[in-house]
Amino acid sequence: MNVFAEIVVAIFIVVGASFGLVGSWGLLRLPHLMARLHAPTKATTLGVGSVLLASTVFFLATGGGFSVHEVLIVLFLFLTAPVSASFVARAYLRAHGDPAELPRAGEQGWASFAPRAGDVGDYMAASTSRDVRED
Predict the structure, then answer these.
(1) What is the pLDDT of residues 65-110, one digit of tens each?
(2) HEC secondary structure over 49-99
(3) How far is 11 from 7, CA to CA, in rounded Å?
(4) 54: buried, middle or exposed (CB in 10 Å: 19+, 13-18, 0-12)?
(5) How high is the pLDDT of residue 82?
(6) How far apart are CA 38 and CA 15, in angstroms?
(7) How far apart are CA 7 and CA 4, in angstroms?
(8) What is d(CA 42, CA 22) in angstroms, rounded to the nearest whole number?
């Protein structure tokens, strides 16, 4: 393997390890779920992606050929991490958020607090009372 490929692999590994460290530290140290959610979905995703790119460059440089598996892992990781983070955030907002405290978001309101057909109780009273306007 030539020196240039070794430097590129080393840079990708150091960048990936740094992002992984920052993401893991953020997951442990940030105060609540909504803040902690960003650490693994942003920093750690970039860290794992960088390490997989280092592996791809390494095997290309050593004559092992191009690995489709590593590219698919990176693609799958970058597609699923934001979606799962969105689901976790919406579930957290639905369980712990107060719709009356959120700012208005146009005609439809917040998608996380959109009333559903089976919803009853305080949630419905809070979400419908602020939409009723007196003329």
Answers:
(1) 888 888 888 889 888 888 888 888 888 877 877 766 665 555 555 5
(2) HHHHHHHHHHHHHCCCCCCHHHHHHHHHHHHHHHHHHHHHHHHHHHHHCCH
(3) 6
(4) buried
(5) 84
(6) 18
(7) 5
(8) 10
- Residue 20's alpha-carbon distances to 13, 14, 49, in angstroms, are 10, 10, 10
Residue that the structure tokens 């030539």 belong to: 2
Domain segments of the chain as ranges: 3-96, 100-135
Q: What is the pLDDT of residue 36?
A: 83
Structure tokens at 122: 């305080």
**How do residues 5-41 score in pLDDT, each as one tens digit?**
999 999 999 999 999 999 889 888 888 777 788 887 8
